[in-house]
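Worked example 3 (structure in, sequence out).
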């Protein structure tokens, strides 16, 4: 098996992990690694509340009966593939999610001892609000106002802002938010369809890979070239100019990233040559989608010991760069 995961739990202020589960201790595959299941959905906070769910099977009884000790700890989950199978690409493995354990509880059913963790990328909730104050002054770029607000509310979290400097308000626009979701919804409501034209998609905010990321339509990230063998099935349209596609699990895609679809037929072992008479059968060796797409949502779905390849995947929702 070449599936890979590495989960670390760290107490606040500590430098060393309090607990670690991994499929490759010291880089060597462990066939007896615990089974893990997870579902991480990452998107713009104005559109979706990002809450992650993780289950670790086969935990020790001492951890099962004291599961609440993990609440409040910082967690990092890495995943993807390691070398082994011919088509596995270890370069695509990376950080899938980070956050704070919001809830932790154990269960014992038959011979299955499991630990369930509910993870929040942002520690602030309506019950425990944060000090998120947007003091957007007249004539000030929104990027600077957001930088000041987020730096105070998240002093130890890296912040990356890639939005247009032309988003400047003609009057003071103060706003106090208890959560990052509220801030993202406010900013989206103020900016969408204005400042840069009616088609402007607005300013988006999310947390991914341990950093706060703010971007808009002017953001031009590096292009990630997709290979034919990265797909699980064909991409498909799910709405007007909204595409969804499923990849083998990978940690190198981020919200706002641009992906370039593969062109032409694949040239890999297993591709079958055909005659002109049987040409229609060759269509399954190429993707129906061409060109570039911007990633709007990412969902990592993992069931480590499932024999189904679709249970160790990354599902991506994308928007075409040149919509029609």
């Amino acid at each position: 098996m070449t599936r890979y995961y590495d989960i670390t739990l760290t107490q606040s202020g500590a430098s060393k992990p309090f607990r670690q589960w991994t499929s490759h201790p010291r880089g060597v595959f462990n066939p007896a690694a615990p089974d893990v299941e997870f579902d991480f959905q990452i998107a713009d906070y104005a559109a979706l509340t990002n809450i992650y769910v993780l289950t670790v099977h086969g935990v020790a009884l001492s951890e099962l009966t004291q599961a609440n000790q993990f609440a409040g700890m910082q967690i990092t989950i890495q995943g993807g593939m390691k070398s082994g199978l011919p088509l596995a690409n270890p370069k695509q493995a990376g950080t899938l999610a980070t956050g704070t354990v919001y809830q932790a509880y154990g269960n014992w059913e038959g011979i299955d001892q499991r630990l369930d963790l509910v993870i929040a990328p942002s520690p602030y909730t309506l019950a425990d609000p944060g000090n998120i104050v947007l003091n957007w002054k007249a004539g000030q770029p929104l990027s600077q106002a957001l930088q000041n607000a987020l730096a105070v509310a998240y002093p130890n979290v890296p912040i990356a802002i890639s939005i247009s400097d032309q988003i400047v308000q003609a009057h003071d626009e103060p706003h106090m938010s208890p959560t990052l979701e509220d801030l993202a919804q406010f900013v989206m409501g103020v900016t969408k369809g204005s400042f840069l034209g009616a088609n402007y998609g607005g300013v988006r905010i999310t947390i991914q890979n341990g950093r706060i990321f703010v971007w808009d339509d002017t953001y031009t990230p590096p292009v990630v070239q997709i290979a034919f063998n990265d797909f699980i099935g064909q991409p498909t349209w799910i709405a007007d100019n909204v595409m969804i596609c499923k990849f083998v699990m990978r940690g190198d895609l981020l919200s706002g990233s641009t992906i370039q679809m593969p062109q032409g037929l694949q040239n890999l072992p297993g591709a079958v040559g055909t005659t002109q008479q049987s040409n229609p059968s060759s269509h399954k060796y190429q993707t129906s989608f061409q060109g570039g797409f911007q990633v709007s949502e990412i969902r990592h779905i993992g069931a480590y010991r499932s024999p189904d390849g679709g249970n160790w995947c990354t599902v991506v929702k994308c928007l075409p760069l040149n919509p029609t």
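Notes: DSSP finds three helices and 18 strands in the chain. Residues 223-320 form a domain with the Elongation Factor Tu (Ef-tu); domain 3 fold (CATH 2.40.30).
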